[in-house]
Amino acid sequence: MKYPIDKELKSISIYSGSMVGRLYPLVNKAYGFVKCKSDDNVTVKKYSTPGYDGAEISALVIEPKQYEGDLPCIVLFHGGGFLMRASGAHYQIAKWYAQKAKCKVVMPDYRLLPKYRYPVAIEDCYNAYTWVLENAETLDINRDKILVAGDSAGGNIAGAVTLMLNDRGQSLPKGALLIYPVLDKRMITDSMKRFTDTPIWDSNCNKLFWGMYLKDQDANLAKYASIAEADSLGFFPPAYIEVSEYDCLHDEGIEFAQRLETEGISVEVHDMKGTCHGYETALKSSILEKCMAVRLEWIRKIFEC
Length: 305
Description:
Elements: H1 10-13, H2 17-31, E1 42-50, E2 56-64, E3 71-77, H3 88-100, E4 104-108, H4 120-134, H5 136-139, E5 141-151, H6 153-167, E6 175-179, H7 190-194, H8 203-213, E7 239-246, H9 250-262, E8 267-276, H10 286-304
Parallel strand pairs: 3-4, 3-5, 5-6, 6-7, 7-8
Antiparallel strand pairs: 1-2, 2-4
Helix pairs in contact: 4-6
């Protein structure tokens, strides 16, 4: 293997970015059979929620069993390059958050590429977030304790929704948890130039994604696509950012964290050595176990504020 990726990630590191790009229709078909179901620890309910431009989408609400009163909430946006559906790994991680952080997790089933381009996905998710705010009492959610979270393209959505909420005068989340997020359409960082052949995701995939996402758009007017280009981030809530060592997205995550700090925002950064993009899918790895422990500590701290 060209990159010294941890052996615990062997099962995912065999897949090249170009392979993932070619096979996503088959992956989506397979993911369509994966359901997020209630179990001994959590209850899963499905709701119809408003989407962009009058459409309806669905959202899962995952809650821990045996709780009383209003709970904090994580609005979780799954990754997948805006191309792929939520995976079994996304559902499991959402369940862990609900169970271990004693909170509700809302997962919008936003619409995907190639049919639905910018800004459909982020507008779907913005509408899902405001639906949570408007229905907090019915959902037994403490609207003053809501986080946004997402991995990869889901991290992009979490950042975009936060910026949209700020611009549109809505209540901001108390925190943003971003896992190897996509943040900058300019693709100008050193890691973007260097990692053209890393597993799962590489700069060639990234270029393809941006081309599909912003097709027929004036990229200069796509304000919410690339939050790294926002004029100001001084409004942003406290952030937690994880980046992967062998990932074209590595540097934009680090640079975004540095910019947040420069603008006075509290940020916690974890640079995961020996990892490639998508390491969250290795559910049984000690890598994810350690990440989850640190994330949960940060989540509890934010909820307690």
